Amino acid sequence: MELYKDIESLVFKESNKKYSIKFFRVYYPKRYEIGALDRKIRDEIYEFKNGISFDKFLIEIKEWLIENYGTYQLNGVTFLPIPASNKKVNEKRYKKFCELLCEELKIENGYNYISMKENNYPNHLKDDMKAKKYEFILNEDKLKGKRLIVFDDILTSGKTFYSLATTLEGLNCKIRLAIFLARTIKQEDYVEEYFTIYKR
Question: How many other CB atoms are there within 10 angstroms of residue 76's CB atom?
Answer without folding.
Answer: 11
